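Please produce the structure of this protein holding adenosine-5'-triphosphate.
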Amino acid sequence: MIAATVSCFVSDVALYHYDPTFDISTHSQSQLSTNKHTRRHTLPQHHPSMASSATTLTLCLPPSPYYCHKPTTTLSPFLFSQSQSQSHSLPAFSRTLLHPTITPRAYVTGPASDPIFGDLYPKLDGSGPEKDKPRPRGVISKELLWTLLMKHKLRLGVSVATLLACTTCTLSMPIFSGRFFEVLIGVRPESLWRLLTKIGVLYALEPLLTVIFVINMNIVWEKVMSTLRAQIFGRILIQKVEFFDKYKVGELTGLLTSDLGSLKDIVSENVSRDRGFRALSEVIGTIFILFALSPQLAPILGVLMLAVSVSIAVYKRSTLPVFKAHGLAQATISDCVTETFSAIRTVRSFGGEKRQMFTFANQVLSFQSSGIKLGTFKSVNESLTRTAVYISLLALYCLGGSKVKAGQLSVGHMASFVGYTFTLTFAVQGLVNTLGDLRGTFAAVERINSVLSGIQIDDALAKGLERELKQKAGDDENYKLFFSINYAEKNQSNYLQYMSALKTSSNLFSLPWSGDVCLEDVYFSYPLRPDVEILRGLNLRLKCGTVTALVGPSGAGKSTIVQLLARFYEPARGCITVAGEDVRTFDKSEWARVVSIVNQEPVLFSVSVGENIAYGLPDDDVSKDDVIKAAKAANAHDFILSLPQGYDTLVGERGGLLSGGQRQRIAIARALLKNAPILILDEATSALDAVSERLVQDALNHLMKGRTTLVIAHRLSTVQNAHQIAMVSDGKVAELGTHFELLAKKGQYASLVGTQRLAFE
Ligand SMILES: Nc1ncnc2c1ncn2[C@@H]1O[C@H](COP(=O)(O)OP(=O)(O)OP(=O)(O)O)[C@@H](O)[C@H]1O
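Below is the modeled complex.
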């Protein structure tokens, strides 16, 4: 009779503890939805040492020993032009592009002698001696996490307090259950209603405290994760271009989604009652209570329960690959669907429906078989959990029952033991799952750190960006995400060190308007192929305000010259100067403002036409009038007006809703708005038909006016009017002159023209 009553009561406790969907299924599904990294284990493991000295992350800029200190630093403010008519500003811009902040820009003035050059020269591009280089450090470190968590001390304090309180409630329940039975059978002189009131309070408090704990922990962790995500995005953004040559976009996306997702889940998926801290505190608490209730029974029962629960939990985790395989099969189906429907025109034109059906059916069948396997494992797992409980209960009934009969253990304590059997079983299994998750999280963090702890940060970009962000962070919440606490104090010295290393200069923006751009004895190999020298002592002067055309055989290095001029890479030897100043003395975000590039395939962002044009001045308050003016000059205004929402029409992914010629004219309008003194046209018209080419060429002629322009074109007809033509061959300029001079030379250019004569007709 007692046993039956106990069982009834216990089933209530069990219900409370037992979640039939339990860990693996729910957990692994949610993991799978984000953990696509199971399909991409190819990331190279750099810097396994993963030094973790970072106490702040910010943009995680390494101290920069490459720059020599100069004592005098004068910051000369440069005001962004405000729009004349604020009321005409495009509304959407204010959200994304417009920050009417007056942003001071700075150049360093000081004595003319320059310690950056001479022996220290190569250090500008970070190629100084190995010992001088900053130690690689992990992006995500214990110290950083601690620092970020400590920003939310109050919430953390509330979380810890409520965790302890709700665990206490949970662990008190079996004791009160025991007392309840003792009152029922009359061995405890306590009022039943008083006891029930206490139990009622306990039942009311526990869920309330749980909610407070979970909400607070979630808020803290979401905030920490937002900062981390922003920091890692920022850290990727400031890597040198070769970093992006090395890693695929998918791999980098994986760091920010699945890998960081795994770090996020370790808390958000583990704050529920049967996992993580809660499970840990329940396991510890239960063991203590068991010992307090019966020091003789506790060791045997405790060890047995722990052993059974741990081994079953470990077995269940070992079935995780089945759950993952099912998730992967699902992902493959969705890939197939996406690919089929996004390429529906290609499928139609090749009559590929049957083939797609076959592929899809194949995937559906493998999804089906993994689903059946999964179902079997789920049911086995579920019954194993029950088996764990039953084994523990049976052991308890045998051992505890004989002690009760012998009068060595009270019925109340026996009933409490039953409750703790459930608590311990589920808490242990939850804990094992959390530990398993932790393993995955450590692997994810290591992956992030191994990719990002290399010294591939582009200092010349990062420090300038850091300075600008710091200024903006005062006004805009969004930018604050990129800074962790104590940012200013900890990085001020790096910043000043960098700033003081800049060469004496007047405003960079004015230099290319008046001086030539020169490539002087430039040697270059791509970092990923250091053995292949692409440029070998190349010399080229782009005269101020004139057009220089680059021609040469495919693979000669024409686009490489463009990449160097844009400072995506730095020369291995030699230098690029503007009005006699080495360009490496300017930070790259400043340099980006003086160079405009229009490519064969211009990339537009998936925002409106107007916003794409305004991207020419991403930091400025761009008025709609300015945008329209640029669009008119680029022959784009008329077609933009014919679009459904005019300047507010969305251009689709990478500008896919526009034609090639329309995209190109928007890119030219963007460059016109940017108004950079140096212009690079890399095969800008080669992908267009005759009509579009004419429209674009007109726009380009307008754009080129007065700018130092470098043109690359395969069609010689587009280069023959250049002021000078440089024939690039074997990594050098082999011939230089006007079209007619080079023809008269009867050299490589003349023979190139000969083979492509049709291009003139
Ligand atoms: N990111 C890169 N990493 C390694 N090697 C590269 C990279 N980009 C280009 N190369 C190599 O550099 C060489 C020069 O390429 P580049 O694109 O400058 O030639 P190009 O003269 O512009 O050719 P084309 O006229 O065909 O566009 C080629 O052999 C190419 O394979």
